[in-house]
Amino acid sequence: MEHKIILLILFLFSIFKSGYSVNSPHPIDVIYDEKSFTLIFESHSSYPTRLILYQNRTTPRYEMAPNYFNCNLVIGNRRYCSFHSDEPFSRLWGSMYSKVCTREESSPVEDCSFRIYELTSFPKPSNFKYNKKPGTSGGDVVFTGSYLRFMGGPNRLQNSYGNFNPFVVKGNFSDPSFDCNNITVIVPPGAGNFELAFDDVGNYLLPFSYESPKISSIVLNSLKQIITINGDNFFTDKNLVKVSFDGIIQTNFVISVNHTQIQVKNFKRVDPGPMSVTITVNRVSIEENFIHCFPAIITSISSVSNHLGGIVTIKGEKLSSTLNSSFTPSITIGNKQCTFIKSTTTQLECQLDPNENGGRDLPVNVNFGGCNSTSPNRVSFTYNIPKLSSYLKT
After folding, report:
1. How many CA atoms lie within 13 A of 350 on its CB side?
2. pLDDT one digit per residue (tens) for the chain, 394 residues
3. Residue pair 151/59 in contact by the 8 Å Cβ criterion
4. What's 5's DSSP letter?
5. Are 241 and 280 a contacting pair, CB within 8 Å?
6. Long-range pairs, 33-36, Cβ under 8 A, ≥24
7. 230 CA to centre of own chain
8. Is-contact 213 279, C-beta < 8 A?
9. Are 140 and 182 in contact (CB under 8 A)?
10. DSSP notation for 139-177
């Protein structure tokens, strides 16, 4: 008899539960920081009782500690539901298919069929920091923040790059000691700007990008008319790369070494002075233009009397600009200025003032726009040494 009564009670309860409808929870706002969050509802509406976080679409997190919502606080027509868990918030992770158990104010019946992504307000990924941007060759990036995996992955990170293939997130999220708000993401090779979605719903997108191109050195091979640009983050696809010299786009170039070297062919320059180099890879440009100098080359120099001064003649290459006649150099001999008079590409004249002290092996510099000259045979300047032509013997 007692067994029949129990069966009857269970039967009646099942009929009551199946016939009772619980509305889906619709929070109107959320208050959260890195250690707590509270969902706010209309006081008369349904509200949550607990979360069942899922690893993926179908599998709950079996290791998850107990949790609950305390919804006893009602102020005016607002109900405040504060989330509590027996594990730290750094372990708060799940997929967008996690479930929210819900009840109505007038009934204790709990309905756990609602998906967490149906919540109109919830704690969003926040307080982002990262250790670096990935190079175009790819690599690991460490992200820290809050609620990074509350509705994401967990071992995949949605993004807008390329074919939208998720990035891999390292780590065993089922390990109780694993910090879900300190994650390492494997970013594949690529270039340009994209967005990261730390929640699979895509309600919060973080603008991100690969590292900008960097130039470490430029080497000119005059005989082969090739200028080689060494650096990093040049990627591998020439179609995504733009190279400019003094604002003029170069089209005859190749990526000679993936990510780290570009060679511009058929390059010829006869003028001295600086050249501004810009590289853009998939709309991400070098942070600061690289300045490469084409120096004047000194092969010989004449001399003058230190007491009289006079015109000094310097011979070599790139001693004048063929494109801009007003682009004249600053010339120094030792610590004295030599005033520019005139020049051709192979010869330059300047006026050197008298110098009572004279000097030997003084350095010579012909500077065009901040670019110092060079001298393959280390030409230096020495004032004429006084010579005795005759003397009167008494």
Report:
1. 24
2. 555 454 444 444 444 444 558 999 999 999 999 999 999 999 999 999 999 999 999 999 988 999 999 999 999 999 999 999 999 999 999 999 999 999 999 899 999 999 998 888 999 999 999 999 999 999 999 999 999 999 988 999 999 998 889 999 999 999 999 999 999 999 999 999 999 999 888 878 899 999 999 999 999 999 999 999 999 999 999 999 999 999 999 999 999 999 999 999 999 998 999 999 999 999 999 999 999 999 999 999 999 999 899 999 999 999 999 999 899 999 999 999 999 999 999 999 999 999 988 899 999 999 999 999 999 999 999 999 765 555 556 5
3. no
4. H
5. yes
6. 33/146, 34/89, 34/126, 34/127, 34/146, 34/181, 35/89, 36/82, 36/83, 36/89
7. 19
8. yes
9. no
10. EEEEEEEESTTTTS-SSEEEE-STT-PPEEE-S-TTSTT
Kindly report whether the peptide bond that precedes residue 154 is cis, defined as omega within 30 degrees of 0.
yes
Taking residue 79's Cβ as centre, other Cβ atoms within 10 Å add up to: 22
- Residue with tokens 């982002």, as numbered in its chain: 128
C-alpha 350/C-alpha 333 separation (Å) is 10
Do residues 310 and 304 make contact, with C-beta atoms less than 8 angstroms apart?
yes
Rounded to the nearest 10°, the torsion over CA 93, 99, 105, 108 is -110
